[in-house]
Specification:
This protein is an alpha/beta fold. It has 9 helices and 10 strands. Helix 4 (115-124) links the parallel strand 5 (106-109) and strand 6 (129-132). 31% of the residues are buried. The model has no long low-confidence stretch (mean pLDDT 95).
Length: 308
């Protein structure tokens, strides 16, 4: 389990901003279950269980964490931020949540809440309109404070150290399976300070064409591309790094593709200025790749956000 670097005062300030957004959007209550909005506002990383966990934030009044009784030991108490209501195996947690919403008519729901809980809640909260919680939490989470930026930098630096170990040959490739290298990378991420390894993709040869390949029994050979995409969570914030290495002297077509990619990266970085839209960055990088004749193979995107 990962922990966040935030304090009770941070959570109170964040909840106050969420409530301001709720007032502006006329939202009476915000309900957050599994997903990263929950730890952002409470410090608690809920497991995606069939048992309901819900942070109930009314526009006014007490914030309540409804949590399975057996999960209570995992919740770090935050006095003054929220109170805890534990439910037992024979109780109906959705009914408990509904009782905390006696007059709510517009309710924001966490984007990753299980559909079964929403369906059950619909039957218990008559006449309410439901909207996505991203409308009241999203803009707040998009803007990182100084401590969050520092946490992201620390997680990124730790992943960079593992990438350097890969580049320098400290992580053997030839003769090992993708799964073995994946396990090696995972162990190194933990050794460098990550609390959790979220993924360690290793894709050799033809498998490197699949960005989210599952590392398997494929043995890595000489003179082929090996794609490594790995990251984890440190103090509640994530790292995510992708590197391609070549086990030998790169073939001419590989070297050519690399130069195109390098130029596209530079174009994307140059376009990433304050005020630019994400699509502008993608368009700048994509134009280089398309001009070189590789456009049909660019099946993903230039990048994505990173945070918790």
């Amino acid at each position: 389990m990962s922990t966040t670097i935030a304090t009770a005062s941070d959570y109170l300030a964040r909840i106050a901003k969420v409530r301001s957004a709720m007032v502006a959007k006329q939202v009476d209550a915000t309900l957050l279950s599994v997903g990263h909005d929950l730890p952002y506002l409470s410090g608690y990383f809920a497991m995606p269980l069939e048992r309901l966990t819900m942070l109930v934030i009314p526009q006014n009044g007490e914030v309540v964490m409804v949590v399975p009784r057996l999960e209570v030991p995992r919740v770090v108490p935050q006095p003054g931020v929220f109170s805890i209501v534990a439910w037992g195996e024979t109780e109906d947690p959705v009914a408990i949540v509904a009782k905390l919403l006696p007059s709510a008519r517009k309710i924001a729901i966490g984007d990753q809440m299980w559909a079964r809980f929403l369906v059950e809640l619909l039957a218990k909260v008559n006449g309410a309109t439901f909207v996505r919680a991203v409308d009241v939490v999203g803009s707040l989470r998009m803007s990182k404070d100084a401590s969050e930026i520092a946490a992201l930098q620390a997680a990124g630096a730790a992943a960079d150290r593992v990438a350097q170990q890969l580049h320098s040959g400290q992580i053997p490739l030839i003769g090992r399976t993708e799964a073995q290298v994946s396990a090696d990378i995972s162990a190194r991420l933990l050794a460098e300070g990550h609390d959790v390894v979220n993924f360690a993709i290793v894709a050799a040869g033809e498998n490197a064409a699949s960005p989210h390949h599952h590392a398997g029994s494929r043995v890595i050979a000489k003179n082929e591309i090996v794609l490594c995409d790995f990251g984890g969570t440190m103090n509640g914030y994530c790292s995510d790094i992708t590197r391609c290495v070549y086990t030998g002297k790169p073939a001419s077509d590989v070297a050519q593709a690399y130069e195109v990619l390098f130029a596209a990266q530079a174009a994307g970085v140059a376009a990433g200025v304050v005020g630019a839209a994400c699509e502008d960055v993608d368009r700048a990088a994509r134009a280089i790749i398309e001009a070189a004749g590789f456009g049909e193979y660019f099946v993903h995107r230039t990048g994505h956000g990173i945070g918790m």
